[in-house]
Queue: 2 jobs
Job 1
Amino acid sequence: MSDSTQDDVLPAEGNSKVLKMQSPMGIHDILPKDHEYFTFIKKVARHRFRQAGFRRITTPILEYTEVFKRAVGEDTDVVSKEMYTFEDRSGRSLTLKPEGTAGAVRAYIQHGMKELPQPVELYYIEPHFRYDRPQKGRYRMFWQIGAEIIGESDPALDVQCIFLVYKMLRDLGIAERIDLQINNIGSQKSREKYKEALVNYYTGKERSLCEDCQRRMHSNPLRLLDCKNEDCRILAQLAPKFEQYRTPEDQDFHRLVKEFLDELGITYTENPQLVRGLDYYTQTVFEFWDKSTGSQNAIGGGGRYDGLVELMGGPATPAVGFALGIERVINQMKEAGVIVPSKDEVHIFVAQLGDEAKKKCLPLIDQLRDAGIRTVGALGKGSMKAQMRLADKFAVPYCLIMGATEVREGVVIVRDMSKGQQRAVPMKDVVKEVTKLIGKENLDTYTPGEIAF
Ligand code: AMP
């Protein structure tokens, strides 16, 4: 992932000479080396989700814009500034999904999941899109691992979400680098009084606020608490704390969350300023911060959203969820020096000279691959020298070589690349022989029906 921040000034339409053929700003290719991390992280996530009884859901990459406006809130940065919104050919407004919860909740309602045993536990691993300012760890297309527990309100479920993330971070070798921040922002009702107190506090201080906060002061005053602007942060530190406005129910809820976390040995930092960017949160909110850089590089976050299902037209249904940013997890793993196992290394390179040899090599390559041996064949017209140079580039431990003489004699030459030694093996024994050399435990076998997806 590169972190280009150059301006993305588009050339005039039709001026193809100046249009650089590159991915859009802030949107990156995932190259093979990073896919090793992606695959590893997805496997860990799927494993932990399955153990906990979660089922996978994939919602469409785009939804009617209304889904996000309603769920996330029109006053949020995500909806007001960051969505990729366009009209389809019949004039309906569609949006590339900027987050996962709204779509999951829309699907829960649309498919009558209320009739299933509750809570319904769903997870997803998907790309999301936000027209954000690109910088290190902040992209316009990014991948999230997310989960939603819909249909039950109990602090133990909030802690289940946090614990799942914690288990994954431990599996990925980065738990020690991450600090869990938690807060309780009460129910929507108990927040009303607090919002009033915030507006009172900020009244008269407008000139010290950034433009965004001046605008949000009346529409969404809670957001002033987690603004990253230096002056706004100073003011936020002195602002009234929600703690004094929590109802006895809010207090009980928060106390139990903390007790359950203690029970599971999860350490946390209480952060009264943590409110999260999206409107739908209630009660528990949490984020996973890099211990050294803090909120700028949260690798994940989540919280309870008891009012959202109803807000989106479903029956009153409590819920809680979280999302982890895969690119940020990968950055953490790289910084921590975590190496993931590579399954891309090629075992065998097959070199051949002449059409007759090529004819014999094609079925041989197929048999080797079926046996779980990762095989690359040089099937172009290169000289033997050029093919061997290519074999070196693949860093294969063994090479199979076949020319006209080997075809005539019914043998294949097996060359040990590190020792530089070679010997002729009868064609019928080659797969068995190579399997022995590679080792059964290293084979990449695929048995439909048995494979762990
Ligand atoms: P949010 O719901 O905005 O807190 O997002 C949850 C997680 O997704 C964050 O903690 C990040 O790890 C990741 N994330 C959010 N926005 C971006 C972005 N623009 N680029 C990369 N990762 C992101």
Job 2
Amino acid sequence: MVEAPRVVLASSNPGKLREFAALLAGVPVRLRNASPEELAALPEEGDQYEANARAKAVTVAQASGLPALADDSGLEVDGLGGAPGPLSARYGGDPLDDAGRVARLLAALAERPGAARNARFVCVAALALPDGTVHIRRGECPGRILPEPRGEGGFGYDPVFEPEGHTRSLAELPADLKNSLSHRGRALAGLTEELTRLSGG
Ligand code: IMP
């Protein structure tokens, strides 16, 4: 039997690898985390999802000589003019953890009317091939910011994000349901065809 082609995820995070593997179940690729050496030349992240995702994927494809996948994502809130956006991981400055960033977001939206709480998660996924070709796909998950955190699952802003058409926060939804409607799931679904083609399929 021919082995599925190897693809490197431009991240050292085993949690991200698990999530990508779940999202790409059924796609014939063998996914692994990038090594520290393959990640050594990663550029500083900027404030554009596509440029960030592209730079990560291209850097790791060049370093590994293998196809590389990367993503960049963030939360855009209408009442904050689309912030924190690509800067979501650093919202409020360095000393804050996820809970601190959520508290900061809720404070920024306190007393704001319903429409200000409309929001979306955005993800741009990039697949870079060793020959220099890069495929880019964007996925969005629309919803709104809740008045207070709810649920124990997920990470980041999940406890205060209620996806459109649901009455629970992302942190209250089962992981497979979150994956089926998430921005990351939608962006990666757009790359399935290119990933399948790697195996000659
Ligand atoms: P990354 O680009 O995927 O590392 O995401 C950047 C930041 O956006 C994360 O640190 C989180 O704060 C936020 N974020 C991205 N995706 C999600 C999600 O699915 N749930 C909650 N927060 C997210």
